[in-house]
């Protein structure tokens, strides 16, 4: 009930109009020769919510979403969740969606543990691919994320220069486009903690690829989870961070099962995208 109220008041969602707007979107998609897009109701509702139920903004966002995914083909494949490398990356715990929220209508909080993987064994591409697979499932199933938005906590502990050098300026630009400009998500803030000295320099370079509105939501804090306590209650964090959300391994075990359950959906994503030669 709380999320339904939020969707109505903040996202302009009118239950009686949902079916009509979905049909209008599907009709528009059918008429775009360059666009191969999903037309599942829940998938499209996620875009409508992310665009505060503006049909025209939603159309632009869907086009941008698939345009971005076509450009970053190296991140989009292979997406089989039972592939040995994908399972290994998941179990490292780079991207950890937290199961608890502060209130029933609060944003979803996700924890990124940037230094958790060995940069000699895995690339940032491997890690981002798995992250995108997880957020694709969240798009379909996580109403807190799609209605209330998402807050990201980035733990930089154990992050080395090898990790940071894997993120080239071109990849920075592509991923910023993929996760910000083309994603139907209301970002509620990025909070970096346990950062090393000199981090601000690289951080400033990455922020240059973002729009001003997005840059204002990125913050650097001190050491330990207590440094972010005024932005997110400690109790919703994993037990390794002093919280009550269970262990990181427990959360990852849930997500390993969840990705396998959605295997067909994840692998079918490669059938969608844009063909710029057919754009009119």
SS strand fraction: 5-15%
- Strands in their spatial order, largest beta sheet: 2-3-4-5-6
Major sheet:
5 strands, mixed
Outline the low-pLDDT stretches.
none
- Tally of strands: 7
Protein name: Putative phosphatidylinositol transfer protein sec14
Organism: Nyssomyia neivai
InterPro entries: CRAL-TRIO_dom (IPR001251), CRAL-TRIO_dom_sf (IPR036865), CRAL/TRIO_N_dom (IPR011074), CRAL/TRIO_N_dom_sf (IPR036273)
GO molecular function, one term: phosphatidylinositol bisphosphate binding
Briefly characterize the structure.
The chain is of the alpha/beta class and 280 residues long. It is built from 14 helices and seven strands.
Sum up the structure in keywords.
globular; two-stranded antiparallel sheet; 280 residues; 2 domains; Phosphatidylinositol Transfer Protein Sec14p; 49% helix; 14 helices; 5-stranded mixed beta sheet; alpha/beta; 10% strand
């Amino acid at each position: 009930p709380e999320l339904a109220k939020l969707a109505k008041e903040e996202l302009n969602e009118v239950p009686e109009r949902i079916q009509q707007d979905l049909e209008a979107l599907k009709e528009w998609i059918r008429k775009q020769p360059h666009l191969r897009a999903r037309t599942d109701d829940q998938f499209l509702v996620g875009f409508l919510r992310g665009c505060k139920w503006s049909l025209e903004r939603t159309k632009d966002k869907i086009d941008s979403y698939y345009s971005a995914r076509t450009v970053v083909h190296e991140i989009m494949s292979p997406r089989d969740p039972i592939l040995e490398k994908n399972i290994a990356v998941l179990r490292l715990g780079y991207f950890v969606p937290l199961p608890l929220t502060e209130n029933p209508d609060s944003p979803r909080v996700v924890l990124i543990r940037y230094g958790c993987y060995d940069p000699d064994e895995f690339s940032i591409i491997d890690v981002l691919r798995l992250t995108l697979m997880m957020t694709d499932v969240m798009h379909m199933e996580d109403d807190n994320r799609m209605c209330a938005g998402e807050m990201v906590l980035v733990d930089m502990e154990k992050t080395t220069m090898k990790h940071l050098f894997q993120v080239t300026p071109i990849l920075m630009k592509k991923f910023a486009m993929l996760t910000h400009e083309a994603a139907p998500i209301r970002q509620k803030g990025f909070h970096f903690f346990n950062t090393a000295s000199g981090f601000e320099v690289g951080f400033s370079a990455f922020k240059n690829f973002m729009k001003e509105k997005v840059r204002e939501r990125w913050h650097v804090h001190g050491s330990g989870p207590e440094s972010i306590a005024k932005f997110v209650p400690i109790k919703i964090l994993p037990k390794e961070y002093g919280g009550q959300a269970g262990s990181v391994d427990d959360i990852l075990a849930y997500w390993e099962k969840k990705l396998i359950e959605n295997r067909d959906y994840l692998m079918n994503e490669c059938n969608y995208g844009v063909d710029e030669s057919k754009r009119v």
